[in-house]
Amino acid sequence: MSIDAVTPHAIPQLAIFTDFDGTLVEIAETPDAVEVPDTLAQQLERAVRELDSAFAVLTGREIADIDRYLAPLHLPIAGAHGTQRRRADGVVETVDPAIVLAAEEIAHAVSPLVQANPSLLLENKEGAVALHFRQAPELETAVRIAMEEAVHAVTDFTLVPGKMVLEARPRAASKGEALRAFMREEPFLGRTPIFIGDDTTDEDAFIAAQDLGGVGIKLGEGDTAARMRIANVASVHALIQGLGDIAARDREVALMH
Ligand SMILES: O=P(O)(O)OC[C@H]1O[C@H](O[C@H]2O[C@H](CO)[C@@H](O)[C@H](O)[C@H]2O)[C@H](O)[C@@H](O)[C@@H]1O
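Above: query sequence and L263DTV3 SMILES. Below: predicted holo structure tokens.
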């Protein structure tokens, strides 16, 4: 085969979606204690460039949290489990005030349990609530009961278990729906999605990526819909770097044709 017969793209043009906690950074004892490597933002910036900006974070955290950890990057982000979304053009979609209010009501309803047990940690996010029991694993059942009661008192919210946390989010929002929304827009449109995550809250997005012809990559063990696995956070960083390298090489080959 002559070199002219080689297709310009060695792999399909990719859109990379990644989770944050447990995937881009190691899990820490509390949400504020995560250690973000100094080089992470720079590493991501390069991959973002090589992938023509088809790179987004899908996270349970709020968008502002991720902006702070990945400064000066301002990536497309779905925050609070898909309740918030900042598109690639920088526009942040407005969260329905009824959803914001319902989340506040849930947080208010579980606050007596938190006041009685200061080792619990409540995160009151825009349109979602997380109740962490990492510092008090013995309170998992009490957390579940309180969150179930609180969610039943509002409309259209559901519970999602995470790592030593129980979260409430709107039924209509998920990382899967967020991934599908990004994929309908430039610069993601027409690309092949890859989603990397580590948690049960990532399952919707594994399924969405695979429905759209791409791949879900699960970090760690446990049942999953993802077709591929990756061992640890360091391997995720290496994978993102490698995919950036391939995109850069494909671009060079394409320029030669
Ligand atoms: O979707 P993610 O980006 O993985 O975010 C999921 C939740 O992550 C955070 O909680 C988890 O990470 C903490 C720091 O490592 C850890 O202390 C906690 O036990 C984990 O559950 C974050 O605080 C939540 O808001 C996110 O929804």
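The longest strand covers residues 157-162.
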